[in-house]
Fold these 2 entries.
Entry 1:
Amino acid sequence: GAGVSQTPSNKVTEKGKYVELRCDPISGHTALYWYRQSLGQGPEFLIYFQGTGAADDSGLPNDRFFAVRPEGSVSTLKIQRTERGDSAVYLCASSLLSKPTNTEAFFGQGTRLTVV
Amino acid sequence: EDKVVQSPLSLVVHEGDTVTLNCSYEVTNFRSLLWYKQEKKAPTFLFMLTSSGIEKKSGRLSSILDKKELFSILNITATQTGDSAIYLCAVGTNAGKSTFGDGTTLTVKP
């Protein structure tokens, strides 16, 4: 597709379960970001990949959160032992240049995660 | 800690009005300031600003950056109902990380 694709669009899970959220960036985009957005707030940075490696994972809230991008394209955000406080919209974005803050990032439609 | 503050938090205007949205920031190693429009889930890009005093313009929208006073404004003239959205300001650093403000929710009434 032409844009950033995120699946699933909605995910409801029980507290304590494991979830995986997928992001398929625009083809050729080397930089990939994950953000978390709660109601009434702006996107909160989680992790940034440059190619296959995590260039900055300082936004991951704790060790229950992990993200991979093994082939430098699709990325998966993994959350273990989910808690109700993890409920949010998880946004993925990608950008073309090696210095992504020099150019716009394209966002996916997000995954709305609800932990019950 | 990097910080981006947007004001006002929300704004209600009527069609045809002009609005000014504000974004102030405190970040280490500033690289760029970006404005996004968020209508449902995915923010869409409006402007990227890297230099002070140079206005970026697109139709009825314009934006300018002041790197000395550490703020940016986004102006929308002759507002339309389709301008109703959350407007997000983000600041990028040399390290690649972007910090977002909490947005301004604009409602344009017919």
Entry 2:
Amino acid sequence: AQSVTQLDSHVSVSEGTPVLLRCNYSSSYSPSLFWYVQHPNKGLQLLLKYTSAATLVKGINGFEAEFKKSETSFHLTKPSAHMSDAAEYFCVVTPFGYNKLIFGAGTRLAVHP
Amino acid sequence: EADIYQTPRYLVIGTGKKITLECSQTMGHDKMYWYQQDPGMELHLIHYSYGVNSTEKGDLSSESTVSRIRTEHFPLTLESARPSHTSQYLCASSESRGNYNEQFFGPGTRLTVL
């Protein structure tokens, strides 16, 4: 069975400090993995995606994620948080050839001055 | 910025009304999707379509119906709205090619049924 677990429902950081949003997945087949961000009253925007190429994936706005097959993880990081990063972040998996996205429950990131 | 649009953005209606949530995309994508998202929760797929005249129910049971008469248009209808239908509805689309499905999302419709 395919599933996604986001280990933290809320993360709070100070502006300028690193961000770590954790995601573990379960997939029977070679998965594609995504991180989406959702700002209040907005649709979801793709941050980055892993599709079996380089395991370290760089996305928009300084975010990156590393695919670790041995740990079945795809954690999202950013070296220095900005106030505009405050949003809901969703880790998403889709197994190879599977036509649906499987969403995690989301992590709400708060950034304090 | 993805070219996928949803109207209305916000809707407050009374119980028993028939409503249609509109979704259109200008990217020529064959695949389109409807998700339901309650506050602070993950998205659940309620309908999807792989092309014109193709519609399927998603993982979450929904009383809504959809149609796909044109590639760019994927409206969702509730024949008789109830308070339990209060939620946010997100539309998405993706290409048919490739081994992964990067989906592009619309801004959503926040529905409140009184």
